[in-house]
Amino acid sequence: MGIAKRAQAIKPSPTLATAAKAKAMKAQGIDVVDFGVGEPDFDTPENVKQAGIKAIQSGFTKYTPAGGTDELKEAVLEKFKRDNGLQYDKSQILISCGAKHSLYNIAEALFDPGDEVIIPSPYWVSYPDQVLLNDALPVIVETTEAEGFKLSAKKLEQAITKKTRALVLNSPSNPTGLAYDKKALEDIAALAVRHNMYVISDEIYEKLIYDGFTHTSIASLGKEIKDLTIVVNGVSKSHAMTGWRIGYAAGPKDVITAMTNIQSQSTSNPSSISQKAAVEALRGPQDFIGTMNVEFDKRRKYMVERLNKIKGVSCLMPVGAFYAFPRISSLFGKSLNGKVVKNSADLATLLLEEAKVALVSGDAFGADAYIRLSYATSMDSIKKGLDRIEQMINNLR
Ligand SMILES: *Cc1c(COP(=O)(O)O)cnc(C)c1O
Fold it and tell me: How many domains does the chain have?
């Protein structure tokens, strides 16, 4: 007997694996500074929690429609109109158990065996595996630091074949923290329209932006590209609601209908209670986001500045999300206590074992020259962690 080939082709999410290892060390009483985390360290806003409690107390605890409640879909429609200038119909919205679930539903709804899906690297860890799970082929297109980790129209065009079905975009990006401006998106949109391919636009970090950066949704750049784009978003990052599991997708009606049917045969509806909380998150006061961003902004500047002072490390200033993505490849070949750093995974292991700092190696994102540090942790931890990293790297010979 055994396991299906498609399940054998994938690996557990590496970011979650790092978190588990760091957690195990902490449980043993080891003081680990955790830069591996992929979620805000802020608490879910009080008004949102209360909406969840009220849902429980009022008995809103049964099945809802598989694709989400009308009330939450309306709140999502309002959000798209308000924040992105995008008009959808309710039949073009799906509420899922997190943005990751929406993305998975898209992969199931759109990809046939052999289809090619273009994924710029560095990429979020789940994109290639979700493609593989649906017997399609991830086509990884490398972007460079010099390009600001953005896919150029030229590189995109070179990667397009007759089998290309879709492009996955993530802006602002996990892991790089960089984001596409309107002009870059216009160039990509023109190609997508010309080659009639879908764009899967993961905009989960839309609200976490700095230095006055303006987020643009590629779907807002015209009717033709809107008809080819599935926008994915959610409340996990914007409202510190990762555990509530609410994400959503908006796109062409036939794609959303297929995704809804798939969801109805797999998970059914996302939690009724979480849906009520998400309505409050989207419709209630939004000042929580500003408060969170002020804090993230301070940590971002501090972390990047410190990283750039470490010999052999260089880091671009991110404009979104809550990650720094420094280049560390000049350390390859050096060693500590007989342990040679050959790649980013070796460095991450050494940092965890010797410096007691957890982070994610760049190979997880298809970029072995880098490591990812999350600054979704307290300023004190950031200072302590960077002291430790600096010291260990200075001790490499
Ligand atoms: C966190 C994250 C998601 C998933 O968010 P959930 O709504 O919690 O499933 C999707 N895409 C990226 C890039 C993320 O970092």
Answer: 2
β strands within 108-209, DSSP E? 116-121, 137-142, 164-170, 198-202
253 to 227, 231, 258: CA distances (angstroms): 9, 13, 9
Substitution candidate for ligand 1 out of 173, 202, 206, 360 with most atoms within 8 A of CB: 202
> Ligand 1: which atom is nearest the Cα of residue 173?
13
Which atom of ligand 1 is the closest one to the Cα of 247?
A: 7
**Segments of the chain scoring below 70 in pLDDT:** 13-18
**Same domain for 298 and 272?**
no
Q: How far is CA 190 from CA 200, 219, 223, 246, 255, in A?
A: 15, 12, 12, 31, 21
CB atoms under 10 Å from CB of 354, counted, come to 15
Rounded percentage of the chain residues whose pLDDT exceeds 70: 98
* Residues within a 6 A CB radius of ligand 1: 38, 98-100, 124, 170, 174, 202, 204, 234, 236-237, 242, 247
pLDDT digits (tens, 9 = 90+) for 29-74: 999 999 998 899 999 999 999 999 999 999 999 999 999 999 999 9
**Side-chain half-sphere CA neighbours of 70 within 13 A:** 0
* Structural domain range at position 351: 5-43+288-394
Compute CA distances 350 → 280, 334, 341, 342, 358, whole Å: 44, 12, 8, 11, 10
User: What pTM did the predictor assign?
Assistant: 0.97
